[in-house]
Amino acid sequence: MATTADIRTGLIIKLDNSLYSVVEFGQNKTARAAAKVWAKLKGVDNTRSIEHTWNSGDNIFPVRVEKKTFQYLYQDDSGYNFMDNETFEQIALGENLIDAPQFLKEGQEVQVSINTETEQPMSVELPDKIVVKVTYSEPGLKGDTATRTLKPATVEGGATVNVPLFVNEGELIRVNTKTGEYIERVKE
Q1: Could you tell me if 161 and 167 are in contact, meaning their C-beta atoms sit under 8 angstroms apart?
Q2: Got the DSSP string for 55-87?
Q3: Residues in domain Translation elongation factor P/YeiP central (predicted)?
Q4: pLDDT of 85-138, one tens digit each?
């Protein structure tokens, strides 16, 4: 049985019949009262974000999660379709389970978190940084690179990313999928 001493960032726990991921946690100690452990929790199977406090040493109920590599295939009426790279089994997931669906590309490998108790997919994580092609961008002015001025650019998949003025249509750029920010231009 796990206790509050086992809480760590990223741990998925069952609380009030819902699954939550620990985003941040800490401990409060006072001279007069017992120590308390608090955590900011983000809903895995719901959209709620909550804060919860336990007495130090209370039992918690972690959920065993397995991460598997899947390949993104396509999107249709049933959702986003992925294929397990080991068994070639296909699953369709809703957009709410994917951390950055606007950056998905066909053939891209992603990590799918699966609840081992129910064998249900819980979330889809893209790599932190991906390379995408700019499909539309206003042309920049030659020599206008002294300032950190940004312009919107549409990348494959339809997402809009703010890029420096020197980035042109057809170029490859590296993007942070967590923040949606431009990192650098990539040479082919």
Answers
A1: no
A2: ETT-EE-B--EEEEEEEEEEEETTEEEEEETTT
A3: 67-122
A4: 999 999 999 888 888 888 888 899 999 988 888 888 888 888 989 998 999 988
Domain extent for 53? 2-60
Q: Of 22, 44, 60, which one is at a domain's C-terminal end?
A: 60
Buried b (16+ CB within 10 A) or exposed e, 151-164: eebebebebebebb
In the block, residue with structure tokens 């598997």? 68
114: how many CB neighbours lie within 10 A of its CB? 19
Q: What is the pTM of this model?
A: 0.73
Looking at residue 16, which CATH number applies to its domain? 2.30.30.30
Answer for the pair 56, 8: CB distance below 8 angstroms, yes or no. no
Distance (Å, whole) CA 173 – CA 186: 5
| Maximum C-alpha span of the chain | 67
Q: Tell me, what CATH number does 151's domain have?
A: 2.40.50.140
Q: Long-range pairs for 178-185 at CB < 8 Å and ≥24 separation? A: 178/99, 178/100, 178/128, 180/100, 180/102, 180/103, 182/150, 183/129
CA angle 113, 92, 98 (to 5 degrees): 50
How many domains would you assign to the chain?
A: 3
Q: Which two tokens stand for residue 55?
A: 């007495």
Place of tokens 């397995």: 66
